[in-house]
Amino acid sequence: MPSMHTQNVECARDIILGKIGAHHPKVAVILGSGLGGLSDRLKYPVSIPYRELPGFPAMTVAGHRGEVVAGNLNGVEVITLRGRTHFYETDNAYPLKTMIRTMKAIGVETLFLSNAAGSLRPEIKTGELMMITDHINYMGFHPLVGPNDDIFGPRFPPMGDAWDPALAKKLKEAAQQQGIPLHEGVYVAFRGPSFETPAEIRMAQKMGGDAVGMSSVPDCIIARHCGLKVVGCSCITNMGAGLSDEKLSHEHTLENAKRGADNFEKLVAAFVTRL
Length: 275
Ligand code: HPA
Known about the structure:
Rossmann fold; alpha/beta; 6 helices
């Protein structure tokens, strides 16, 4: 008897495949805070609210709409996920697992992760993009804790190439071609929901981090576990706490994400043609 989670994935897969018809996306993009505009760039869009998909996240945070939009970006079939679970909202990883494993079940091979993040380096400035080359899970949380769902992946998935080097190369080439500055670095995930203290930011710098945020790491782990390749970038919305005198807030994050959103959308559009 398949678990409720497995049934949700199969049911969501059938609903999505039934609705997106001729689209056969091989790449899915999870859109971070303030970066949802990419789904408005899709041609021939088909959108499905998460509430119609069993087990998908219920959205609670402003800036996250909660819908799947499939369509054509620059001649390439893509599927975008607007909104995701954050682990400052819940301990339950199943909504995020359902969303990502459903992407695998519909035939997606590559997951593009995006987020809003704080910079840990003076040369990585607000409004700029940073390709994620690796991560540090500092959330005190792991999405695969609990019985392993063997049908999706192994108990002990390796993370040596969590952020795929070949895809990273393609993302860099896309940025160069578009003339978009693209930093590279390690993303440190804190659980939130508070922003970090200046002391925590100094610790994150010493640990080897280049940007901090509250997402994407669980997504990456779930995706690698079920065999999806992962690539992604952060849109820098602020300097980490104590590195400048700006006051951090969610509104500030959303406002500043707009400064990077245009380059982000161009970058993803150029990237998908290289897959
Ligand atoms: N810290 C954590 N998450 C964030 C930040 C930050 O400075 N900026 C945007 N998301």
